[in-house]
Amino acid sequence: MAAVAEAAAEAQWARCPNCEAFIYHKHLKRNLGVCPECNYHFRLRIPERLEQLLDPGSFEDLSEDIAPIDFLSFADTKPYPQRIAAAQKKSRHPSGAVYGTGTADGHPVVVAMIDFGFIGGSMSGAVGESITRGAELALERRVPFIAISASGGARMQEGAVSLMQMVKTSQAVARLREAGVLYISLLTDPTFGGVSASFATLGDLLVAEPGTRIGFAGRSVIEQTIRQTLPDDFQTAAFLMEKGQLDVVEPRENLRQTIRKVLKMHAGGAAAAEPRFEASGPEAQAPVTDPDALEARPAWDVVQLARDIQRPHTLDYIERMCDDFVEFKGDRLYRDDAAIVGGLASIGGRTVMVVGHQKGHTTQTMVHRNFGMPHPEGYRKALRLMRYAARFGMPIVALVDTPGAFPGLEAEERGQSIAIAESILEMSRLPVPSVTVVTGEGGSGGALALAAADRVLMLENSYYSVISPEGCSTILFKDASKAPQAAAALRLTAPDLIRLKVMDAAVREPEGGAQTDHDAAAANLKRAVVETLDELVALPVDELLSQRYARFRMFGTAESQPTLDPIGDQ
Amino acid sequence: MTDDPRDEARKGFETGDFERARRMSMTGLEFNADDLELLRLAGKSGVELASDDAVSLLTRAADLDPGDARGWHDLGQALAAEGRMQEATDAFRKAVELRPDDAAAQVDLGQSARAAGRDEEAAAALARAVELDPGDRASLRSLVDLHRRAGRLDEARTAAQTLADGDPDDALAALDVAELDLELDRADDALAAFSRLRESDDEPERDVYALHGMMQAELRREGWARALELAQEALRIDPSGRTEAVLGFFAGQAVGPRGNPVAGRAEADAVLQESLTEYRRILGEELGF
C-alpha cells in the first residue's frame, strides 16, 4: 500500500499555466516541457534543462561547495537565513545555481545555470560565484561557456554585495571575450534586472525561447512611470528580437540542435589556419581575372540583369553553398534590419561568417527586406557579426546586392553615414581574411560598407557603381531617359571594374544569368569563395592587413590607378 | 550477469537502465512473442524511451491478459504519454474496474478524464483516489479545480482547506481557500484566508496580491475604511498601477467623494480580480515542469 500511495502522490500530471490544459508528465517530458496545446514553454529546473542540452550523463556539477551567505545579517519580515532555508526546501537545491562541465554532441563545454525557483533566481553572491567560476573554468580550459539565466534581478537581501555580482560576472565574461572563448547566453523566462544588465546579455550569442520575457525594469514599473499601456508582446523574446537585442529565438525543440550546430562550427573554426577546403564540384566554373575573357555586354543590359527579381540573394546562396548555417540577428542597439542577413556558416568544411544584403522575390518579401536597402542598424548588425568573426579567427564572406543604403529620415537620424563609415573602417582592419562578392546591385556606399575586403569579386552580370544610372542620368545628363548612356559612362560592369582594379575577378553565371539557375550560380560562387579563402588564410595577419591596405591605397593615384580608354575605343 | 533475458530486462528496468531493459526484453520476445512479462517490460521501457511501439506492445499484453488491471494501467500510461487521452481514459477505466482500490489507477483515470473533458468521471475518480490516499495533493488540487468549475463551491472549499492544512507553505492552496471564501460570500473568512496567504507565500514582492485579495474582501463587505488602509499599504509596494486605479474609489467610499475616481465598484472589483488571476498564473508557473 505504501508503494501505491507513493506512486499516487507523485505528480504525474501537470497543468499548463497558460491554457490550463492537463498534460501527462511523460507526454510533457517528450515534448521537452512545452505544452502540446498552446506551445507554452514550462520553466525547466536545472536537471531537466541540462538533460535537454547536454549529452546524457556528461554533466559534472562543480558547484557543490557554493552556498548562499547572509553577508548583511539581513532581516525583513523574516531573517534572510530563514528565506534561504525555505528556498532550499522549495527548490531542492542548496544555492539556486550550478556550474560544471559537460559535453554537447561530444563538444566539451562549461555550463552555468540559475534556478528561478530559488528566490526568483535573484543574483546572490552564490549565483554570481557559479557564473564567474564557470566563466573562469571555460577560460582556463578554452572551451565554450554556456550560461542559462532566469532571474528577477538582484538579491535585495544581499544589498550591495548582490550589485557587485554584476561586475564580477561581467569582468569574467570580458576575459572570455578578450581570449576569444565562445560564450553562449541562453536567456529563459524571465530574465530581468541585475542579471539581464550583466552577464546574461553579454554573450557572443544571445539565444532565447519563444515567449521568454527579458528586460531591465518590469513591465508594470514602466507602465506606471510612463503612464502608457504597453503592447502585449512588450519585453517578450519576439519583441526583443525585432528590436535587435537577441541573435536567435528558437523553440525548445530546436534549441539543442542550434546550440550544437554553433559549437560544431566553432570547433571547425579553430582549425581555420589549415587550408582544407574540398574541391568544388566539376560543374563549377572558375572565376575570371582577365576582363577580355568576359562578354562585353551593354552596361544597361547588365543593370537589368542585376536587378532581376528572380536573381538569387544572400539567403538563396547560403542555402546552396553552406553545409550549416545559423542566422544571427540584430544590432544589439535598435532593431533587426531584414535588409542585411548574416550568421555562422560552414562552406566547404570551413567555418566563416557570412553577411549580405537580402532582397525578396515577392512583393511581400521585398517590402519586408526593404528592397535590400539597409538602415544604419543593418550595417551595425553586419559590423557586429564581422567583429564576432574577428574574435574567433573566422574568415568573412560578404555578399553585396543593394540599390544603396536606405535614403530616409530615420536612417539619417540614426546615423546612416556613421554606420557605413564605421563599417568600412573596421572591415579594412579586421585581422581575418575577407572576401566580398557583388552578386547583383552594388549600390554605392551602401554596398561599399560590406566591401572593404581583401578580395572583391563580382558576378559577371552584376554592377558596382557610385550612383544608380538613373540618378547619374538625372544629375549629370539632365535627362532621366539617359540612364542607359549613364550606365555605360559609369563603367560599372565587371570587365571595366577589373581593368580599374576595383574588382579582382568576375564569377561566371549560367547562360542567361544567375536567375535562370540558382544552383549553378551558387556552385560558381562557392568555388570562387572557397578558392579565394584558400589563398587568403595562408597569409599571416600582418601580411593580410598590409596587402589589404595597399589594395585600397592605390586607387586614384597617378602611379598605380589604371585609366580606361574611351568607350568607343575598347 | 545471467543468461535469462527476462532477468536481465527486469534488472535493467528496476535500475532505470531502460535501454538495456528494452533490448533484453525484445531479445526474449524473439523466442516467445507472447511472454507477458517481456511484453510489459518492453512496452514500459518503450514508454520511458519514447519508443513508437510502446503502445502496441502494451496493447498486446493487455489483450493477452485482459483480467490484469496492471496491464491496462500500463497501457493507459503509454497512451497518455502520447497525448491520446480518450484512449488512455478507456484503458485506465478498465484498470479501475478490475482493481477499484488502486489509488494510482484512480489518479490516472481522474486526470486523463479531466484532460479528455470528462469532468464528472474525473471528479469521481479523483475523490476515490483521495479516499485511498489522503496525502495525494495533486489529486486534491485537481478536485478543487473540478468542483469549482462545476459550481460545487463547498466541496471545492473543503478540498482546498485540506490542501492548505496539509502544507502551510502551499500558497496556491491558500489562494484557493481565500478565493472560494469570496465566491461563497464569506468575506470575513476570505479576509482571514488572505491574511494566512501572506504567511504562506515567502516572496515579499508578492505581498501585494494578498493585499488586493483583502481589499476585494473588504469591498464585498463594504468595509471601506479598512479597504482604504489596505490600499494605502498596497500602494507603497505595488508597481502595477492597480492599487492606484482603485484608490480613488475606496477613498470616495471611506471619506466621501474626492474628484473623479478612476473606477466604480464593479471596475474596482474587476481590477482586484485581475490581480488575483495574475497571482494564480505566477504560482502555477512556479509549479513548473
Describe the structure using short key phrases.
heterodimer; A: 570 residues; 22 helices; elongated; disordered N terminus; B: 289 residues; mainly alpha
Q: What is the C-alpha radius of gyration of chain A, as a whole number of Å?
A: 27 Å
Mean pLDDT of chain A: 93
* Major sheet details of chain B: none
- The tally of strands of chain B reads 0
Distance between the termini of chain A: 98 Å
**H/E element order of chain B:** HHHHHHHHHHHHHHHH
Helix/strand class of chain A: alpha/beta
Regions of chain A with pLDDT < 50 over 5+ consecutive residues? Answer: 1-10, 270-277
Quaternary state of this entry equals heterodimer
Secondary structure tally, helices of chain B:
16
Shape of chain B: elongated
Straight-line distance between termini of chain B: 37 Å
Point out poorly predicted stretches of chain B: none
What overall geometry of chain A do the principal axes of the alpha carbons give? elongated
Instruction: Assess the beta-strand content of chain A as a share of residues.
Output: 15-25%
Helical coverage of chain B, percent range: over 70%
Q: Specify the number of helices of chain A.
A: 22
Mean pLDDT of chain B: 92
Describe the protein's architecture and organization.
The complex is a heterodimer of chains A (570) and B (289). Chain A is α/β, with parallel strands linked by helices and 570 residues long. Chain A has 22 helices and 18 strands. In chain A, helix 5 runs parallel beside helix 6 and helix 14 runs parallel beside helix 16. In chain B, helix 1 runs parallel beside helix 3, helix 4 runs antiparallel to helix 5 and helix 15 packs antiparallel against helix 16. At the A-B interface, helix 1, strand 1, strand 2, helix 2 and helix 4 of A face helix 5, helix 7, helix 9 and helix 16 of B.
